[in-house]
């Protein structure tokens, strides 16, 4: 049994060499390798304990990466949910970012105020409030 647990840890560590992953992503990857629930759980607990797996860190880093690529909160939330990140970690990651309205205003500053920019922001997952604030004409 210990050998199976070691196999799970080794497989997870190999996956983490490529990039940081959420615990849910690692669990799914280990399940596809045919590892049982007990071995997967033990491996994830071990990696969390030593700091290799941290959903809070993963969510924060991924959210920052997506925000840097002009993603709005809805797109970031969707991405993190798809990676199995817990809701509280997603909320913390979004709260740590600059406000969505400010990020949208920067994009408008680069692209200009127009319907095209509004469509771009909407496609990138920015909320209605950020869209209105970003493209509204100053009087």
Kindly describe this structure.
- This protein folds into 2 domains: 2-53, Arc Repressor Mutant, subunit A, CATH 1.10.10; 55-139, no CATH class.
- Helix content is 74%, strand content 0%.
- The mean pLDDT is 90.
- It has 139 residues and is mainly α.
List strands and helices in order, with pairings.
Layout: H1 2-18, H2 23-32, H3 37-49, H4 55-68, H5 73-82, H6 87-96, H7 100-111, H8 115-123, H9 128-135
Helix pairs in contact: 1-2, 1-3, 2-3, 4-5, 4-6, 5-6, 7-9, 8-9
- What does the main sheet amount to? none
The helix/strand class is mainly alpha
- Straight-line N-to-C gap: 71 Å
Radius of gyration using CA atoms only: 19 Å
| Tally of separate domains | 2
* SSE run: HHHHHHHHH
Write down how many β-strands occur, each being a DSSP E stretch of 2 or more residues. 0
* Inertia-based shape: elongated
Low-confidence parts lasting 5 or more residues at pLDDT below 50?
none
How many separate helices?
9
Helix content: over 70%
Mean pLDDT: 90
Strand content: under 5%
Task: Jot down its keywords.
139 residues, mainly alpha, Arc Repressor Mutant, subunit A, 2 domains
Short description:
The chain is built from 9 helices and no strands. With 139 residues, it is mainly alpha-helical.
């Amino acid at each position: 049994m210990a050998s199976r647990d070691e196999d799970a840890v080794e497989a997870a560590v190999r996956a983490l060499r490529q990039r940081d992953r959420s615990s849910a992503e690692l669990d799914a990857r280990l399940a596809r390798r045919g590892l049982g629930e007990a071995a997967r759980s033990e491996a994830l607990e071990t990696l969390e304990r030593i700091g290799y797996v941290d959903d809070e860190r993963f969510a924060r880093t991924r959210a920052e990466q997506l925000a840097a690529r002009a993603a709005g909160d809805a797109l970031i939330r969707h991405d993190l949910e798809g990676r199995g990140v817990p809701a509280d970690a997603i909320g913390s990651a979004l709260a740590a970012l600059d406000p969505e309205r400010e990020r949208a205003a920067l994009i408008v500053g680069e692209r200009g105020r127009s319907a095209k920019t509004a469509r771009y922001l909407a496609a990138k997952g920015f909320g209605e409030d950020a869209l209105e604030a970003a493209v509204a004409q100053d009087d």
